[in-house]
């Protein structure tokens, strides 16, 4: 028997049809650097005194505007972290608020009640949040699908009860727990130093985007995408879905608790509403509005959602809305009504969210360009 | 002894409330695979419609027959909203589970905000018949009448639901659909009609829970539904998706556990025990007391 050897013919690279090849125009060359440009613009933003009437109350470098922007950036990062579960792995967790709240309350309690220096408190909190996510994830991931959603919801509910009932006098109950700033570094305290908190929030967002991007590009990320698309197939390939999901869950939990640390500094304390299931639901809304499973969609969704949530309150009490008949003006003064309605419409008519805008506009652009390219 | 009886009966009152919310939730999930976050909205609509009717509807009032009329109006409003939600929002998305959950999430946010916009965020005193404020002595325990009313209503609803599922053709279709929806469709029966039906039943039960819960608590507020909903979810999972009887057992277990532990332990510990019970049930018996495995 002669062994038949199939000669390995090097396949010629597939020819890309000319019309599909990307244009090597200036835009394509600039594009990879856009995130960097955005980061630099965001970083030097506090030096600008531009007034944007209608968009922000004060000039860009006023503490109020910077704080709003910082909160928006934090939630952009949180949404990106949540997307690691929902958009990239296909896990519908209703308990993500728990890990964020663990970060906020952990920092607050360790600094205010235990008197630890900030860096120790932050380190302990993030470690604790990650371990908590690993432990609870290990239990919750025994279930799949809707049952998983229920279990995570129930775990988060326990945390909400613990915080609200103020066990051991640690959490301050319904009133929340203001952060004791006497032990903090001077650069993070006071209205004049809001800009430093803004930069901290920006750094957090950049970190989350970087981590999520690196993970989803790695072999692990491909397994996670496989889990989202067809879990059984991953099992058939000999990989353990449970382990990979636990990795994603733990990582997302750790990122959320890190966001909680920064949020605690920005807001200057903790209040029980961050433990509620509504926070997780709004994370879900952010991700879906932005575009699940995309790099920038959840970030944009998170920033936009928090911005609208803050600004719609002002919009709802503005004269333009008050002049409307009560049937219209009352619902419009409720940010959640507006956001919920936008969300429902988005689920129906905009399944890809904001991130799909470019691809959705492509046919339109092409239609507009074609007549002009013809002689 | 009196304390134990009192705790048992108030626990059962709580269980009745959970059961009224969970039974519809369970049927909807079992048949149509929709995890309905908007169920709390139906409850809120029922409560507010009853509250509105007692003050404004001619013939209705806070007492006697007028109160029955007000509750009937509330239940009708809840049913109507549930049917509309099913027809307009859920129906176009069947077999797309995640999108359905997302739509009901959006609906719960927007709906509660709408209630809040219309009637304010603060709790309103609920109109209730004079006798529900009193207590009845049972075996040495002074039990609030509002709780007893809830228990009676829940038992009646349970009986009616079981009879409906057992002896009518629609009930048969629903039971078969929970077991195996594809097979029922293959036999040429339009299961979608029964989807609307279970939404209507669920909406009616939730609205009744809203109205009687208003009597029990004495106030009505926009967020009432969502806080009950989480425990109703837990009851549904423990009881098993799609099983009305399972929901009833689970509601009793959850209500009693919560009430007793909250009294003898620290306040709030009972709620945590309930979640512990959920974790144990899910790990040992994922399909719940009765019903199909909660997957998909």
Automatic annotation (TrEMBL), chain A:
Q: Name one GO molecular function term.
A: branched-chain amino acid transmembrane transporter activity
Entry's transmembrane regions: 33-52, 64-85, 97-116, 122-141, 148-167, 187-212, 246-271, 283-308, 336-357
Cite a GO CC annotation.
Answer: plasma membrane
Q: What is the membrane topology noted in the UniProt record heading this document?
A: Multi-pass membrane protein
Name it: Branched-chain amino acid ABC transporter permease
Output the Pfam families linked to this UniProt entry. Answer: BPD_transp_2
List, alphabetically, the InterPro entries matched.
Answer: ABC_transp_permease (IPR001851), LivM-like (IPR043428)
Mind listing the UniProt keywords for this protein, alphabetically? Cell membrane, Membrane, Transmembrane, Transmembrane helix
Superkingdom, according to UniProt? Bacteria
Compartments annotated for it: namely: Cell membrane
From TrEMBL, chain B:
Specify the protein name.
Branched-chain amino acid ABC transporter permease
One matching Pfam family, short form? BPD_transp_2
Q: Which UniProt keywords apply?
A: Amino-acid transport, Cell membrane, Membrane, Transmembrane, Transmembrane helix, Transport
Q: Which GO biological process annotations does it have?
A: amino acid transport
**Residue ranges the record marks as coiled coil:** none
Instruction: List where the protein spans the membrane.
Output: 6-27, 34-53, 65-89, 101-121, 146-165, 195-217, 229-256, 263-284
First-listed, main subcellular location of the protein, grouped into a coarse class: membrane
Q: Where in the cell is it found?
A: Cell membrane
Q: Which GO terms describe its molecular function?
A: transmembrane transporter activity
Cellular compartments per GO CC? plasma membrane
Q: Could you say which protein family the record assigns here?
A: Belongs to the binding-protein-dependent transport system permease family. LivHM subfamily.
Membrane association type: Multi-pass membrane protein
What InterPro entries does this protein's entry cite?
ABC_transp_permease, BCAA_transport_permease
């Amino acid at each position: 028997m002669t062994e038949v050897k199939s000669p390995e013919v090097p396949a010629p690279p597939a020819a890309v049809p000319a019309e599909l090849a990307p244009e090597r125009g200036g835009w394509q060359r600039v594009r990879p650097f856009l995130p960097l440009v955005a980061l630099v613009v965001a970083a030097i933003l506090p030096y600008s005194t531009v007034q944007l009437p209608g968009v922000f109350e004060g000039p860009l470098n006023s503490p109020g505007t910077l704080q709003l922007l910082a909160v928006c950036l934090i939630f952009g990062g949180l949404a990106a972290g949540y997307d690691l579960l929902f958009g990239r792995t296909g896990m519908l967790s209703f308990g993500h608020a728990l890990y964020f709240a663990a970060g906020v309350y952990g920092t607050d309690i360790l600094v205010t009640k235990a008197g630890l220096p900030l860096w120790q408190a932050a380190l302990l909190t993030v470690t604790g949040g990650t371990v908590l996510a690993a432990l609870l994830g290990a239990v919750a991931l025994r279930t799949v699908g809707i049952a998983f959603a229920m279990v995570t919801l129930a775990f988060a509910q326990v945390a909400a009860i613990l915080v609200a009932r103020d066990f051991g006098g640690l959490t301050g109950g319904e009133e929340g727990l203001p952060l004791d700033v006497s032990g903090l570094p001077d650069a993070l305290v006071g209205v004049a130093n809001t800009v430093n908190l803004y930069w901290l929030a920006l750094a957090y967002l950049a970190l989350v985007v970087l981590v999520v991007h690196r993970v989803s590009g790695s072999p692990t990320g491909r397994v996670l995408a496989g889990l989202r698309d067809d879990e059984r197939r991953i099992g058939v390939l000999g990989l353990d879905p449970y382990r990979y999901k636990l990795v994603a869950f733990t990582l997302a939990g750790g990122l959320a608790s890190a966001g909680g640390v920064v949020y605690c500094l920005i807001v200057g304390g903790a209040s029980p509403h961050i433990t509620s299931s509504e926070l997780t639901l709004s994370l879900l809304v952010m991700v879906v509005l932005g575009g699940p499973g995309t790099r920038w969609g959840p970030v944009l969704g998170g920033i936009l959602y928090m911005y609208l949530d803050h600004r719609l309150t002002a919009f709802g009490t503005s004269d333009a809305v008050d002049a409307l008949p009560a049937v219209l003006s009352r619902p419009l003064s409720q940010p959640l009504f507006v956001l919920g309605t936008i969300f429902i419409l988005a689920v129906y008519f905009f399944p890809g969210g904001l991130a799909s805008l470019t691809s959705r506009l492509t046919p339109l652009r092409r239609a507009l360009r074609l007549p002009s390219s013809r002689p | 002894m009196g304390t134990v009886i009192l705790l048992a009966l108030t626990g059962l009152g709580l269980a009745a409330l959970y059961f009224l919310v969970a039974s519809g939730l369970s049927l909807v999930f079992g048949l149509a695979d929709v995890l309905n976050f908007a169920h709390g909205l139906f409850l809120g609509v029922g409560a507010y419609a009853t509250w509105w009717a007692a003050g404004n509807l001619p013939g209705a009032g806070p007492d006697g027959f007028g109160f029955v009329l007000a509750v009937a109006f509330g239940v009708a409003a809840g049913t109507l909203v549930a049917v509309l939600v099913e027809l307009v929002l859920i129906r176009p998305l069947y077999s797309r589970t995640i999108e359905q959950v997302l739509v009901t999430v959006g609906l719960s946010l927007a709906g509660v905000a709408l209630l809040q916009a219309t009637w304010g965020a603060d709790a309103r005193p609920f109109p209730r018949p004079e006798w529900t404020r009193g207590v009845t002595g049972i075996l040495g325990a002074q039990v609030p009448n509002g709780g007893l009313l809830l228990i009676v209503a829940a038992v009646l609803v349970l009986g009616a639901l079981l009879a409906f599922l057992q002896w009518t053709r629609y009930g048969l279709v629903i039971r078969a659909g929970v077991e195996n929806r594809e097979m029922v469709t293959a036999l040429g029966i339009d299961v979608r009609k029964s989807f609307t039906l279970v939404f209507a039943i669920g909406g009616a039960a939730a609205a009744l829970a809203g109205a009687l819960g208003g009597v029990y608590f004495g106030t009505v507020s926009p967020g009432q539904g969502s806080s009950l909903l989480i425990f109703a979810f837990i009851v549904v999972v423990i009881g098993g998706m799609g099983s009305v009887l399972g929901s009833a057992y689970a509601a009793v277990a959850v209500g009693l556990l919560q009430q007793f532990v909250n009294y003898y332990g620290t306040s709030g510990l009972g709620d945590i025990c309930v979640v512990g019970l959920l974790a144990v049930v899910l790990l040992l018996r994922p399909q719940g007391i009765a019903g199909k495995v909660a997957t998909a």
